[in-house]
Amino acid sequence: MDPRLPRTLSAVITHGSFCYAARELGYTQSVVSQQTASLEGELGVELACRRPLGPTEAGARLMVHVASILLRIDAARAEV
């Protein structure tokens, strides 16, 4: 799994907006949408409801793990 994908999903869910997530991450809105779709395709399940925007049940379960995954990635980067 590309580590950018869970970070993107986290921003989308946190902000409730692909646009705001894109601003935070420095991406275009289409990149955020593509990355979210890519992660969904990789896992074979929808992770975010589009209208209104929010996590699906599977997305909420994944988000429990995303925070710790991102912390570990950031810690590894800092250590290197």
Overview of this protein structure:
This protein is mainly alpha-helical and 80 residues long. Helix content is 72%, strand content 8%. Strands 1-2 form a two-stranded antiparallel sheet. A hairpin with a 2-residue loop joins β1 (48-50) and β2 (53-55). α1 (4-15) crosses α2, α1 crosses α3 (29-43) and α2 (18-25) packs across α3. The longest helix has 23 residues, at 57-79.
Number of separate strands: 2
Whole-Å distance between the termini? 20 Å
Helix content estimate: over 70%
Total helices: the number is 4
Structural class: mainly alpha
Mean pLDDT: 95
Order of helices and strands: HHHEEH
Q: Spatial order of the strands in the main sheet?
A: 1-2
Q: How large, in whole angstroms, is the Cα Rg?
A: 12 Å
Shape annotation: globular
Summarize the structure.
By secondary structure, the protein is mainly α.
Topology:
Elements: H1 4-15, H2 18-25, H3 29-43, E1 48-50, E2 53-55, H4 57-79
Antiparallel strand pairs: 1-2
Characteristic key phrases:
80 residues, mainly alpha, two-stranded antiparallel ribbon, 4 helices, globular
